[in-house]
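User: Hi! I have a protein structure encoded as tokens and I'd like to know what sequence might fold into it. I'm fairly new to this, so please keep things simple.
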């Protein structure tokens, strides 16, 4: 073969090159048409490939990354995740690292649904609650199409019970926030009365004013703005803010200030004296923590602060408001409190105060006698006109001792020791006998039940509980001679069990089970029904309540009005015709709040705050007063006692609760005895 023959079909230097080129061009047109006829364009191939990849990962084959959310494992392909969420890719370990990647800040179901969305383009949303969970996960992973879609759809279906949940969603646009705020303002009363409010931190503020006749001219928006300014400036975390009512005054510039910052002054009303004293105690205890919090708070930027809505209660002096404080949505109750001129600070709009120079601490009365030892998780009841407490913890040990408080003589008297040490017990009085039921001896749950008759010198045993348990609640139905034990903790779970004891034949029987397993709850018999109040399931504090009718043959518990704040270890008592819940723990902090449910009411109303935070207190009416003793303050086991004389009164640790006029008259008499004439206001006579 010659070189020209070898290159005949493609050698452009040959004589036939022009003809060859022309033939090749015409051939290309023919091949293009043939290619179009023979080629395949499958628009579903990409979807099928993703579908195949999805099937492989679900079968745990050929995946290259493993996501783990709270124990749930979700296999995936790094490239698919990168396509839907570059932010997620950046968070993953380097390529080739097959170690599981933990994402415990996401709910497993939400993460699983979003990974499915990456493969299928479909996002299945079952209800509004699931939509909010998916929204939060999509916002965290920066999956914008899913986040925007969910935000738009959620705001189309607002209701008074879920609008607050929507408002707390992160990264809402200004337009979405404005739409939500307008809806909340329009439906404020329904929103405030809904169960959704119990999920928000609730802060109570009381503002001193000179007289009860003084009109509150400030608009709700003005008060809400002043409350927001005060809350932003206070270097205290929300749990501590919720733990007590804050007594404030308005300074000369119109700003709110805490009365605890004022020096003690002679002539202060008892409630104000106690508030100032407790403020000094807290300052000594947590001064360093407050300073650290102040430094931290000063460095916080780009967090939402503002008034969402505010409304004054019709016919009252209370303003209710929803605020964003340092990025957290909270509810606040701002109310006015009448005070004398001696109670209000100089230079403010509310009157004249004592000198600004520090003065020595002074007591305005004698404090009530303390228990022999600080106790928590004890049993308590009124027996024979005395407050009886028994067992519990003193931090170091489980106690057998019992003692009784006589309010008339202000004395604690030892009672016979129980037959065994027990804490986390239930206790109730049936007729004139005190029953202590179950609990723990520090090692195991107990089923024993012991009884002490009024005036007896020894405890006696009766039929044991059907189920050994601790953290149960007990309540007596005197009219039927029966005792109920509600819920509790046994075998690592919160119980639904309710058992009924008949004193006549010393026997136990089953009562209808609770709708929700709960331990560390409170129980009471009120308005012909057995109540279970608060407590906790295996993981969460509960705000819910349940009732079981004791009239007729009720077979199931019904939901009652929820508490404003979820709590466990709460005290409950029936007093002055109302059901009262006081103290408890929100999980991270012991509480001071008192809630009152009156006959015919559909919601709890806020009562006066306890002087000390108390989880698991002894709470019982004795005579005309309601007493709270012991409990855990969050720092120590308490031995102190405080009492409440009226539903709208104030808790006090003092034996007497003289008013300011009586104090001023006493000062005058002392001055006369010293030969120095003064008027009843304590001013130097001319």
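Assistant: Happy to help. Inverse folding works backwards from shape to sequence: for each of the 686 positions I chose a residue that suits the local structure. Here it is:
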């Amino acid at each position: 073969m010659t070189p020209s023959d070898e290159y005949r079909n493609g050698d452009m230097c040959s004589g036939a090159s022009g003809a060859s080129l022309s033939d090749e061009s015409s051939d290309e047109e023919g091949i293009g048409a043939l290619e179009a006829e023979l080629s395949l364009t499958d628009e579903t191939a990409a979807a099928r490939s993703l579908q195949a990849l999805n099937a492989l990962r679900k079968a745990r084959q050929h995946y290259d990354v493993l996501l783990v959310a709270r124990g749930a494992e979700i296999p995936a392909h790094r490239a698919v995740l990168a396509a839907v969420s570059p932010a997620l890719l950046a968070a993953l370990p380097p390529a080739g690292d097959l170690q599981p990647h933990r994402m415990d800040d996401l709910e497993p179901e939400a993460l699983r649904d979003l990974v499915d969305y990456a493969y299928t383009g479909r996002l299945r949303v079952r209800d509004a609650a699931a939509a909010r969970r998916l929204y939060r996960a999509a916002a965290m992973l920066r999956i914008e199409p899913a986040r925007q879609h969910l935000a738009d759809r959620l705001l189309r279906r607002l209701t008074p019970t879920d609008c607050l949940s929507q408002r707390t969603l992160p990264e809402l646009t200004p337009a979405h926030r404005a739409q939500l705020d307008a809806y909340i303002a329009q439906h404020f009363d329904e929103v405030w009365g809904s169960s959704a409010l119990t999920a928000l931190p609730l802060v109570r503020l009381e503002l001193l004013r000179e007289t009860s006749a003084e009109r509150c001219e400030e608009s709700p928006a003005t008060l809400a703005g002043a409350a927001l300014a005060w809350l932003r400036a206070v270097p205290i975390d929300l749990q501590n803010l919720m733990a007590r009512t804050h007594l404030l005054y308005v300074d000369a510039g119109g700003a709110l200030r805490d009365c605890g910052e004022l020096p003690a002054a002679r002539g202060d009303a008892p409630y104000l004296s106690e508030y100032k004293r407790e403020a000094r105690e807290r300052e000594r205890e947590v001064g360093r923590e407050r300073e650290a919090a102040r430094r931290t708070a000063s460095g916080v930027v780009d967090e939402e602060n503002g008034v969402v809505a505010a409304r004054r209660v019709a016919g009252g002096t209370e303003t209710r408001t929803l605020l964003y404080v340092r990025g957290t949505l909270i509810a606040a109750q701002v109310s006015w409190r009448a005070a004398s001129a001696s109670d209000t600070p100089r230079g403010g709009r509310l009157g004249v105060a004592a000198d600004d120079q520090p003065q020595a601490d002074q007591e305005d009365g004698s404090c009530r006698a303390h228990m022999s030892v600080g106790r928590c998780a004890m049993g308590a009841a009124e027996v024979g006109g005395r407050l009886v407490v028994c067992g519990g913890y003193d931090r170091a040990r489980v106690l057998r001792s019992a003692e009784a408080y006589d309010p008339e003589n202000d004395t604690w008297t030892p009672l016979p020791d129980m037959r065994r040490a027990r804490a986390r017990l239930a206790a109730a009085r049936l007729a004139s006998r005190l029953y202590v039921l179950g609990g723990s001896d520090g090692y195991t749950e107990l089923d024993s039940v012991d009884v002490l008759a009024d005036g007896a010198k020894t405890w006696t045993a009766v039929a044991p509980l059907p189920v050994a348990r601790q953290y149960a609640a007990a309540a007596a139905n005197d009219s039927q001679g029966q005792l109920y034990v509600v819920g509790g903790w046994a075998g690592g779970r919160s119980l639904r069990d309710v058992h009924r004891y008949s004193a006549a034949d010393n026997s136990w029987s089953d009562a209808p089970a609770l709708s929700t397993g709960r331990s560390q709850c409170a129980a009471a018999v009120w308005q012909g029904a057995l109540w279970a109040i608060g407590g906790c399931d295996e993981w969460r504090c509960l705000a819910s309540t349940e009732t079981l009718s004791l009239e007729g043959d009720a077979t199931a518990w019904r939901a009652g009005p929820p508490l404003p704040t979820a709590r466990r270890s709460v005290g409950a008592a029936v007093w002055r015709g109302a059901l009262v819940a006081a103290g408890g723990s929100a999980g991270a902090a012991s509480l001071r709040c008192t809630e009152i449910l009156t006959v015919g009411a559909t919601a709890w109303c806020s009562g006066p705050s306890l002087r000390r935070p108390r989880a698991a207190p002894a709470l019982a009416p004795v005579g005309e007063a309601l007493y709270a003793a012991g409990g855990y303050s969050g720092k120590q086991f308490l031995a102190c006692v405080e009492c409440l004389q009226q539903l709208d009164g104030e808790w006090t640790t003092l034996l007497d609760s003289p008013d300011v006029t009586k104090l001023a008259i006493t000062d005058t008499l002392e001055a006369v005895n010293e030969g120095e004439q003064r008027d009843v206001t304590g001013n130097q006579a001319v």
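A useful reference point when you look it over: The chain is about 25% helix and 25% strand. Feel free to ask if any position seems puzzling.
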